[in-house]
Amino acid sequence: MQEIIDQIVDYLKGIWLKRRFIIISTWLICPFSWVYISQLDDIYESNARIYADTQSILGPLLKGLTVENDPEVQIRLMIKTLLSRPNLERITRMTDLDVQATTPQAYEALIEDLKSNIIIEKTGGRTDNIFTITYQHKSPEMAKSVVNSALTVFIENTLGENRNDANSAQKFLDTQIKDYENRLLASESRLTEFKQKYSNVLPDQYGGYYQKLNIVKEQLKIVELNLLEQETQLESAKAQLSSSPKTTDNSQNSIMNSNSIQTTFDARIAELEATLDSLQLRYTEFHPDVKEVKRRLEHLTSQRSKEIEEYLSATESNDNKVLSTSQNPVIQQLQIQVNQLENLIVSTTVRANDYREQVKELESKIHILPEIEAELTSLNRGYEITKSKYEQLLNRKETAQIAQQADETTNPIQFKVIDPPRAPTEPAGPKRILFLIGATIFGFGVGIGLSFLISQITPVVTSSNQVSKLTGIPIFGIVSATENLGLQKWHKRKTLIFIISNCVLLIMLAFFILYAIVPNVILAPIRGIL
Asked: How far is residue 323 from each of residues 241, 333, 337, measured CA to CA in Å?
């Protein structure tokens, strides 16, 4: 750390030895800079504050009926477009600045000056739409005129933007509606011609080709299943008819009737089956009670089978002793059932054949009908899309008309000028005091930098540490010879010149600062002398 401090001290000593360059740079830079700064033209600033009220009373009433524009977004957009070239050219014409520009280059410079010096910013809070328009110019009246013109352009553009947008939207919607109306008529014409051309093969209310084919096949399966059931019932009825008893005098057997064969063992068998179910709910298959009930049930079942066999054998042996079939009501009923089933099978067969013909006919057109249906679907889809777009455009046109009428009735944004632009009486710039101080600091900085550079190019040993570092030999003592050589007086003279130079510069700086603050006080004695 001590080495760094010693190094800094050596640098400062080197700068001090070359301080004449500080005097030269300050006298070459500071006076000329001060004179130039004092001669700068005064700049006058004019501003205006405006409040944009976006709370329209029609907003809640027309919500959902018109196109809702965000006033905040619209205002931000107009702020960005205020400094566009058309608006700036309009401002130049309103303030007669364009008359002062005699050449195209001067006019371009004027446009660039307006673009860079007209400032519009939001000065209120996030919820307060308060804007400030500011402009600086050499003439206070011109500054006021430019601010007033910019304020007028901003308000007119914001209020007229909705009407321009509404008119443009109306024209665009009218063009699109006419276009889609022509498309819709052409689509309807193509669809009508197609339906007239293929009226005999187009799909009906039952659906398309594949759906119709599937329906017919399903109906055919149902009819064939019904036919199979009816044929099975017919065979069963014929079997019952052939095995029915021809007499009703067989009263000695234990059969109760010929249709449902019942024996004297049926009741006991049903009772044992119920008992077995009850026991199986409580015991396993190996319980003695369960085994006993099963044994008795098997015995009764075998007895019942024997009785049925005896009945059937008795029936076959008495075929020649029965009365006429027509005199037996059971046989008559079976014959009626057989006749009905035969008639039903005939009608069902006709239906099945009809469905088979339909399936065959549809399958023969498998390469034609799908293409026709695909083309019809495409035409319908195009027609529906065009119709939907056409209806949407009509709805939007109605919405745009209501929105335009609402804008013509009242403005969604109301502007209120809080502070109108005024011609300033005091200049706003330039900041001469800051410029003067900055020029002084710059002059001294250049001098110090130049002194440091010269001290490094032509170094002078100022301490024993430097000698030790340069030679590598330790220094045990220092003998001063400045007094005998007269160097001390010379250094004092240089120091005095440096101090006098800086004091004169500071006095001049104070004079220029005073002139920047109260120029009339400084110029009054001079004018009196002249």
From this structure: 15, 16, 21
Please state, in angstroms and rounded to a whole number, the distance separating the CA atoms of residues 51 and 125: 12
Q: Are 49 and 419 in contact (CB under 8 A)?
A: yes
Residue type, 295: R
Cα–Cα distance, 223 to 221 (Å, whole number): 6
Closest CA to 436 of 17, 36, 15: 36
Our CA dihedral for 226, 228, 230, 232, rounded to 10 degrees, sits at -150
Q: Which residues contact 201 (CB under 8 A, 6 or more apart)?
A: 365, 368, 369, 372
Query: In the chain, which segments carry CATH 3.30.1890.10?
Result: 44-179+409-419
Record: fold of 44-179+409-419? Bacterial polysaccharide co-polymerase-like (3.30.1890)
Quote the strand ranges of 445-485, DSSP E. none
Amino acid at position 233, single letter: Q
Tens digits of per-residue pLDDT, 366-410? 667 667 777 778 888 888 888 888 888 888 777 766 666 655 555
What is the rounded CA–CA span in Å between residue 103 and residue 7?
Answer: 60
Q: Would you say the pTM of this structure is higher than 0.70? A: no
Asked whether the beta carbons of 298 and 369 are under 8 A apart, the reply is no
Say what the pLDDT of residue 272 is: 78
**176/170 Cα distance (integer angstroms):** 10
